[in-house]
Amino acid sequence: MPGLENYCFSLQKIFLGEIFEPCFLAEIILRTTIMYTYTLINIRLFRTRSLAQLTSFELIIVIALGSAVGDPMFYPDIPLINGMLTITTIVLLTKLISVLTERSDVFETIIEGQPRLVIKNGEIIKQSLRKADISNEELFARLRFKGIENTGQVHYAFIENSGHLSVIKAKNPIDGISTLNHFEV
Predict the structure, then answer these.
(1) The whole model's pTM is what?
(2) Regarding predicted confidence, which is higher, 7 or 160?
(3) Torsion angle, CA of 166/171/172/178, rounded to 10 degrees?
């Protein structure tokens, strides 16, 4: 490989880097503490949902925040103010989008999507499963987790925006497809 002609495996280089500066370790601790505290304050000030309810939009925010927080913690050439400005921008954009989704159903649908109906009156809606990118077996596994042995026990089932399955049980179960087909019970 080009550039690796003189490469030599070195644990010191892996753990301590090419140029080891012991004083920079203390700086990393200080940078990390500042960025962590600053991010925590921003998250607390502009809190939206709990982590258990992350949408794909919010997952993107977490990833963006991770990068914005992490880089200034240990790269000496990235000033803390750059990371702080990035974090503030991400948090303010998130708050703006949150306000817009609260005020506009159309914007909310664009950003968060809609739940997808996958079972109606015991019948699996194949097209919805394909659009949700879920196989029958995965659907059956999720139904079993909810204590459903047969699709006829389900009045409605939705794949929520979070990816969770919501089930409304039928008052009068009908014949349906067993979720236990491949198991000896």
Answers:
(1) 0.57
(2) 160
(3) 20
